[in-house]
Each structure stands twice: as C-alpha cells, then as structure tokens.
Amino acid sequence: MIYNEEFETLPREALEALQLKRLRQVVARVYHTVNFYKKSFDKAGVSPDDLRTLNDLQRFPFTVKQDLRDNYPFGLFAVPMSNVVRLHASSGTTGASTVVGYTKHDIEIWTELVGRCFVAAGLTKNDIIHNAYGYGLFTGGLGAHYGAEKIGASVIPMSGGNTKRQIMILQDFGPTAICCTPSYALNLAEQGRAMGVDMRALKLRVGIFGAEPWSEKMRGEIEKALNLTALNIYGLSEIMGPGVAMECSEERNGMHIYEDNFLVETIDPQTGEVLPPGTEGEIVFTTLTKEAFPLIRYRTRDIARLNLTPCRCGRTHYRLERIVGRSDDMLIIRGVNVFPSQIEAVLVGIDGLEPYYQLIVDREGTLDTLEVQVEVTEKQFAGADEIKVIQRLEKSLIKDMKDYLGITAKVKLVEPKSIQRSFGKANRVIDKRKI
Ligand code: ADP
Ligand code: ZN
Q: Which H, E and C letters describe 278-293, residue by residue?
C-alpha cells in the first residue's frame, strides 16, 4: 500500500522538475528572510537566480550543525514567531542541543510523511500502535504520534522508560505495532522475559525502529525476540524528525527518502566534494517544503549510500541504505577506521553471546585502543567449563574483528546483565580519552 500514490510514484523526470521548482522557491525565500543565508550566499558569490538546474545547487554553501548553534535559538527561522506552532530540540547526542520550529503547514506535512511511513510498513486504521519513542522536546514521540493518528490507527502514547508498565500495556492492550529505538526493543524483550511474559506470543506484528544505527544482525535478534517484522525508519530533527525516510515492507532493503520534500546529495566528508549517487559518503539534505526552518545543504554527518535501483513496491524515491554511523562516531584504531555498527555486525548472533555490548576507547602512549565488552548468555555463564569456553569465545571474536574489520581489539566477555540497558538512544561508546 502507498499512502500518497501520486507523489511517491512520480516518474523520475517529473520528480526532478518538482524538486527544481520547490528548490528555487525555498532558496529565494531563505535568501530574503534569513540573515545567515543572505550572508553565506553573498560570501560564496551565489544568488538564488543561479539555480537553473538541480546541479547548480552544488555551488551553494553547506549548512552545518555549528551554524545552528551559532544562531541559537531561533536565528535560522524563516517565519515570524507568530507563525510557529511547535518547537523541538535535538537530543544533543553530540553537544549542545539545537532548536527547530514548525508552522502549522510544516506539522501537516510531517504528519503526512510519518503516515506514509506507517502505510509503507503495512499498517492501517485497524492497527494499534504502541509508541515508545520519547515524548517531549525529542521529535520521535510526537512525530510518530501524529502520523499514527493520521492513518486512523489507535495510538498508545507510551513514551520511553517505565519498562514494566510498557510490558503490562503490551499484554493488556494488544498493540499490533511498536515504535521505539532498536536498542530499547531488545531491552523490552529482555525485561518481559524476566517477568515471565512470552514476548513472542504478544499481538505485535510490526516494529518500526530507528533513531540510532543498527545492523542487519540486530534486526534478526529483535525479530526473533519479539516475533515481528522489524523495519527501519530514519529522520533527524534538523530536517524534520522521524519520517524523512522509511523502508517498505515489500523489499525491506533501504529506506525510501521522501524526495518530493527533501533533496538528497552524497558528499565526501573530508573534502565536501559531491559524489555520484550510490557511492558511500556523508548524506546532505535540503528541505524543499519546510516553512519555519528550511535548511539548505545540511550536512547530517550520517554516513551511508543511496540505492538507486527500482523497488518492487512501486515507489520511485531513492532508498537510503542502512546508516553506517555518524562521521563523528568513527573510531580510528591503530590507523583503521571503524564504526560501532560494523563491530555490532560482527558480534551479534554468535552462539553463547547476548546482543548487548559496549566499546571502550582509550589511549596507550600515542595509540588508541579498543576494548569490546559483550555479555555472555546465562547458560554459558553458569555452564561447566565456563572459563575455558569464555576464553575460546574471546579468542574467536578477536580473530573475527581482525578478519572482518582489520582491527586489533581487546575482547572482554562480561556477566549477563552487566551492560547498561538503553531506554532510548543507546550509548555504545565509552571514550576514556576524553575523561
Ligand atoms: P541528535 O542529533 O541529538 O541525536 P536527533 O534525535 O535528531 O538528534 O537524531 C538524529 C540522528 O539519529 C540522525 O542524524 C542519525 O544519526 C540517527 N538516526 C536516526 N534514524 C536512524 C536510523 N534509522 N539508523 C541509523 N541512525 C539513525
Ligand atoms: Zn520499496
């Protein structure tokens, strides 16, 4: 099923024509209403009239997170405050939070786009959606909430935390779908089991997971633990919130970006050079329809690749493959670059290990070191020959890290339940170099 057949299946040529029309409008508007853009375009020697084709956008300067911070809180808004009906702030994973605003029309578009996501996941008005994304300044909760109501589903506004209560509601209300971070889904599954609940027997059939990087192997673990189909949703508050891109249930292979609303580019994160679509690099978005807080060429710092192949579902919008990580989360271990999600892909699913892990980065002399801590299963931990088995597992993991990622890491298997559980975005890396 497709929510907005007309726009989600636009032939490429018509889509690009629409993008160009919208792009010219938004660029002209920010130039005349936001001092920051006027200055930065003037400095780069470009004017809105230079936009004749989509490629001309490459001559325009990027916008980066620091620009948002420098204009804190409302300096980049393109409408008077009297037209702003909602404010949100990013969760501040990587520093001071940034503020975003929405007009009534912005909320309507956001609502539709999240509605599109739910329909892409195969949900209808007959579904009950358990929404465990945090409500509040974080865009996740309210974003998903409005979209769920838009398609006529019954939404349970759970928000994050209070896990025991969540498990009770999951049993009593019988939701058919759940929204949360993938790490919290695992946490819920584990706590439910500990309470003696058969988490596979709940009515849940679809999970919509996002807001943090996760691996294909993690998808398998969550599907096994909760007996549902897990789908990936992507978004960031600067660009809108959840619902910028969503996997379709037909292929489950990359998230369709709602390109009638967002123009996407891939760049080399070091040089800023635009890369051919389909190459791995940093994802850059320009918003095409936002009124209150338009962003031109915003560098997300998310590293991924676009999939340009046509999709069975009929949507023509390009797909964003799994986010490898944020460029600022990249670890450099003895000269080898690695993202936490790549480490996750190596260690999740190994017999005897739980999908809970933590990465500890430290420095010895001038070299950075990495210790990977993973929990062993209860069974393994309590078993006979425990020490021998654990040593063997550690050795084989060290070898896997070397073989698959080329990194030399220490591996420490730890007791069940000793790694902190996530209630929202998981914090996988402890960086002792900064302490
Ligand atoms: P913050 O930047 O403070 O974390 P947001 O809540 O806006 O604020 O988070 C957006 C970021 O979350 C994205 O830029 C991306 O790094 C990450 N993210 C969101 N959805 C996904 C996803 N499906 N897969 C991987 N990462 C994601
Ligand atoms: Zn599709």
A: CCCEEEEEEECCCCCC
